[in-house]
Amino acid sequence: MTTTQQLTNKTVLICGASVAGPALAYWLTRYGFTVTVVEQAPTLREGGYKVDIRGVAMEVIDRMGLLPEVGKASTAMRGGAWVDDKGKALATLGPELIGLRSPGDDEVLRGDLAHILFNATKGGVEYLFGDSITGLVQQADGVSVRFRDAAPRVFDLVIGADGMHSTVRRLVFGPEEQFARHTGMAACVVSVPNFLDLDHWELMHPTPGQVVQLYATQRSAAKAQFIFQAPAQLPDRHDRAAQQQLVATTFADAGWQTPTLLHALPQSPDFYFDTVSQIHLDRWSYGRVAVVGDAAWCPSPLSGQGTSMALVGAYVLAGELKAAAGDQRVAFGRYQAALQPYITENLTLGWNNATQMVAADRRAIRTQTTMLRMLRHMPCKGLALRPIIKPLQRAANAIQLTDY
Ligand SMILES: Cc1cc2nc3c(=O)[nH]c(=O)nc-3n(C[C@H](O)[C@H](O)[C@H](O)COP(=O)(O)OP(=O)(O)OC[C@H]3O[C@@H](n4cnc5c(N)ncnc54)[C@H](O)[C@@H]3O)c2cc1C
After folding, report:
1. H/E stretch holding 327
2. Residue 47 Cα, ligand 1 centroid: separation in angstroms?
3. How far, in Å, is the centroid of ligand 1 from the Cα of 368?
4. Which of 91, 153, 193, 287 has its CA 20 to 30 A from that of 357?
5. Does residue 73 lie in a domain region?
6. If you take atom 21 of ligand 1, which residue's CA is the nearest one?
């Protein structure tokens, strides 16, 4: 379905090739725009946690014709267990409890989703890997863009899909500190050998103020996630060695299999580390520039909704640009008006999820595991889970997609 209408603005530069960027590129090319994506990493970035795609976001995947690919990449987790210091299961959970997903929702590895979206767009989109934007000057008829390596170019529109620490947002709206709200937590995710031979199974080991998770979505490798109450001063965002050192020190006494996981940290082929923060921005556009995904509304890496919000945001932004024949003066306002209630509801949910994930002390851990154990044996689990699942379902479906 390619549109033949005359577009006021046709060339679009998107910064960032993870989820929001390629999803936006997909829709814009389908509507007749000419799209370039610049990504600072030399190749498509691997790694990251397993991410949920829920509610309306699954409908977006369906409209992209990507349900079969996402289905094939599904983590298909069988469940998991909370374990103590010795690895003894404190509570065992089935797939319906561990993922809190509703029928039709799915879960994939972030890197797999990035590959699916990239493959769906690479034929019609110009990708510039290993480069970044260093300057933007807005003019009446376009945006003059300076790149770190490539020669300067002019685009009709520029969209920042460059994540929580967005460069586009900084260049246009100002420093990140103005928009970031820190939950007081940090998260680190790495690939490690599957030395416990987990089979689509997840283990969680909580200690006061922190939790270590280990899971495998395939037999050949596993992922370890460390979530912890972060110190006020975190290492520089680009200093991987200091981040690894902080994780090693923080989890030195965590027990269970943690020493083995920490030992594997420096050799891991991928490494994700970030503060668990949200981004709150009043306006998602200025002139010919807009932001989408985590760059505009990061709900935090522990919200469980960031990927869905990026997919839905990209769909609406591209759709409004199509509906306004590329006129950003109309489209950007409509994009924000259509999406704001959905984003606001998910930001609230994301904050609650992130701040309640880690138990503060041993007593809270005991209460948590007792409740999980009881839940497993309840005949009407659905009823007992309603207070948790209902808000999640409501937020995941808090927008009705327009047919653009
Ligand atoms: C490698 C990686 C691992 C992740 N792991 C997790 C995880 O374990 N758990 C979790 O909840 N979330 C994780 N996320 C974040 C998650 O992908 C997002 O919350 C969500 O999917 C929204 O995606 P997004 O495309 O808006 O932003 P992001 O996924 O953050 O993608 C932003 C993209 O922009 C690129 N970029 C950034 N700055 C520039 C620049 N100046 N120039 C060019 N390109 C730039 C980045 O390299 C990245 O590819 C991870 C992101 C990445 C990139």
Report:
1. none
2. 10
3. 31
4. 193
5. yes
6. 307
- Is residue 168 situated within a structural domain? yes
Write out the E strands in 161-284.
Answer: 180-192, 201-207, 210-216, 222-229, 271-279
Which atom, in ligand 1's list, is nearest to the CA of 298?
Answer: 19
Tell me the residue length of the chain.
Answer: 404
Question: Which atom number of ligand 1 is nearest to the Cα of residue 294?
Answer: 26
According to the model, what pLDDT value does residue 127 have?
A: 98
Q: pLDDT of 393-404, one tens digit each?
A: 899 999 999 999
* One domain for residues 253 and 240: yes
Ligand 1, closest atom to CA 110? 17
Q: Whose CA is nearest to atom 38 of ligand 1?
A: 162
Report d(CA 34, CA 13) in Å as an integer.
9
User: How many domains would you assign to the chain?
Assistant: 2
- pTM: predicted TM-score of the whole model, two decimal places: 0.93
- Residues 280-314 have pLDDT tens digits of 999 999 999 999 999 999 998 888 899 999 999 99
Question: Distance between CA 317 and CA 160 in Å, rounded?
Answer: 12
On whether both 41 and 157 belong to a single domain, the answer is yes
Q: Are 208 and 258 within 8 A, CB to CB?
A: no
State the first-to-last Cα distance of the chain, in angstroms, to the nearest integer. Answer: 11
